[in-house]
Amino acid sequence: MADRTKAASNLVEYTVSELAFALKRTVEDAYGLVRLRGEISGFRGQQNSGHCYFTLKDDKAVIEAVVWRSTYQRLKFKPEEGLEVIAKGRVTTYPDRSKYQIVIDELEPAGAGALMALLEQRKKMLAAEGLFEEARKRPLPYLPRILGVVTSPTGAVIRDILHRLEDRFPSHVLVWPVRVQGETCAVEVAGAIAGFNGLVIGASVPRPDLLIVARGGGSLEDLWGFNEEIVVRAAAASAIPLISAVGHETDWTLIDLVADFRAPTPTAAAERAVPVRSELIVSVTNFGLRGASSLRRALQAQRGRLVAASRGLPRHADILALPRQRFDSASARLPRALFANAVAHRSGLERCASRLRPHLVARTTVSGRERLTRFDRTRRHAFSAMMERWRRRLDAQAKLLGTLDYHNVLARGFTLVRTADGTMLRRAAAVKPGAALDIEFADGHVGAHADPRLRKAEPEAKEKRQNGGGKQGTLL
Questions:
Q1: HEC string of 327-390?
Q2: 3-state SS assignment for residue 280
C-alpha cells in the first residue's frame, strides 16, 4: 500500500489548461503544415467576424476547419458546400472545446472533376437569377467610336485585336490592363468592367461604346478567373454592350453566357466589333448615288406636276379684277362716311353737355374725398392694432426665452462643468482622475484638472455626514 502511494505521488500534476496547451504544442510540432483532401461539409458562409468554419470529411472521419478573414479574401477558390478540395494549412487544437482542427492557408479543388462540379453548380445558380436569358442581351453598336479592351497588355491577344482593327476599321482603343489568370484575375477583370462603366461621357478620358473582354486559350484552371461570380455579375451589370472572347472555339466560361455576344477568338471579337472600312465606303458611295438618282427623279416628277397644275390656273389680272373693283367702290364712300360719323358724335356730345350741372360735379367730388379720408383713417388704425398684437407676442416669447437660458442659473451661483472637448458632465462618476475640465461661471470660464484624491475622500465625507461629523455627541 505504501509503494502504491509513493508511485502515485511521483506523477506530474497538470492543470486542465496546462494539459490542453501542452497537447496543442505537441500537435502543432508534429503536424506543422499538411495537405489535406476531403469534402466540405457544414459551410454556411462567412460569420460576422469574417471568419469561416466548416468540416472536412471522407467516408471514415471528419476534422474541423477554420479559414481566417484575411486568408479568405485572398483564396483563389472560395469554399462551397459539398466541394471536394485539397486544403493546405496547420493542424492545431482548440483548448476551449478539446478539439483538434486545421487552420487553412490555401484551398483548391481536388481535380478537374471538382472544378466542373463547382462550375455546373454556379451556372445553375446564376441561370436561376435570369442572368443568361437572351431577352436581356443588347444589340452591339454598328460602328463604335471608342472600343474598350480588358486584357493583358503584354500578351499576343491585344496585338491580334489591334492588328485586326487596323485591317478592318482603324478605331480609338482604350486598354485596361489586367491579369488574365491567377488569384487576382477575377477581381481585376470585374474592376476593369466597372471602371469602364464609371467613365463620364464627354470627360478627358472618353467612355467606350463597346467592351471586349479577351484572353487566349488555356486549361480549365487557367480560365477559372472568368468563371468567378464577381466577373459574371460585373458583366451582367455593365451598361456598355460587352463581347466575350475568352479562350478558343472549344473553350467556354460563364462570362460567355452573360455577355451580349460571345466570340470564339479575340480576332473574331475584333471582326464583330467593327465593319470593314473599304466595304463601308463602297456601300456609302452606292447609297449616295442611289439617293442622288432618286432625288433627281422625284424633282422631275414634281416639276411635271407643277407645270400641269399651272396650266389650269387663271391669270393674276383676272383674279385681282373683282377685289380691285370692290376696293375702289369702298374708297369712294369713305369720306362721306367719316363726315357723317363725326356729325353724329358731335350731336350726342352736345345733348350730354346740356344735362350737366356745376353743383352736381362739386358735390360728387366732395363726397368722394370724405370717403377716401375715412378709409385711410380706418386703415391706419387697423395697422397700428396689428403691430401692437405682434409686439406683445414677441415680448412674451422673449421673456420665456430669458427664463429658460442657463446663464440665469449661473448668475445664481451655480457653475457648468465640461470636458476639454466640450462634453457637459452631470455626475462626478463621469470625471476621470486628472482629466482637463472647463468650468463656466456667470462671468467667464476657468480651466481645471480633476484631483483623484477628492473621489477617494467622498465615501469618508458621506460617512461623516451620516454620523454627524464625528464631533457631536449622542443623546443616549
A1: HHHHHHHHHHHHHHHHHHHHHHHHHHHHHCCHHHHHHHHHHHHHHHHHHHHHHHHHHHHHHHHH
A2: helix
What is d(CA 288, CA 361) in angstroms, rounded to the nearest whole number? 86
Sign of the dihedral defined by the CA atoms of residues 121, 124, 129, 132, in that order: positive
Instruction: Walk across the sheet containing 436-441 and list its strands.
Output: 416-419, 436-441, 444-449
Phi and psi at residue 88, to the nearest 5°: -115, 125
**DSSP-derived secondary structure letter, 57:** E
Inter-CA distances, 109 with 33, 77, 79, 99, 139, Å: 18, 8, 9, 26, 37
414 is a domain residue: yes
Tens-level pLDDT at each residue, the chain (476 residues): 555 555 556 778 888 888 888 888 888 788 878 888 888 888 888 888 889 999 999 888 899 999 998 888 888 778 888 788 888 998 888 888 878 889 999 888 776 667 777 788 888 989 999 999 999 999 999 999 999 999 999 889 999 999 999 999 989 999 999 999 887 899 999 999 999 999 988 888 899 999 999 998 888 878 888 999 999 999 999 999 999 999 888 888 999 999 999 999 999 999 999 998 888 889 899 999 999 999 999 999 999 999 888 887 777 777 788 888 888 888 888 888 888 888 888 888 888 777 766 555 555 555 667 877 888 888 888 888 888 999 898 888 888 777 777 777 787 788 888 888 878 888 888 888 888 888 888 788 888 888 766 554 455 555 555 555 544 444 33
Question: 258, exposed or middle or buried, with CB in 10 Å at 0-12, 13-18, 19+?
Answer: buried
Strands (E), 9-78: 34-41, 52-57, 62-67
Same domain, 163 and 214: yes
Q: CB burial class (10 A; 0-12, 13-18, 19+) of residue 52?
A: buried
Cell of 55: 468540416
Contact 86, 221 (CB under 8 A): no
Structural domain harbouring 417: 403-460
Cα 30 to Cα 23, 27, 33, 91, 406, distances in angstroms: 11, 5, 9, 9, 72
CB half-sphere exposure, 130, CA atoms < 13 A = 4
Q: What is the pTM of this model?
A: 0.48
In Å, how far are 88, 89, 148, 273, 384 from 71, measured between CA atoms?
Answer: 12, 11, 33, 40, 80
Pair 235, 282 in one domain: no
Check whether residue 156 and residue 269 sit in a common domain. yes
Query: For residues 167 and 229, is the Cβ–Cβ distance under 8 A?
Result: no
- CATH assignment of the domain containing 189: 3.40.50.261
Total domains in the fold of the chain: 4
CA dist., res. 247 & res. 260, Å (int):
17
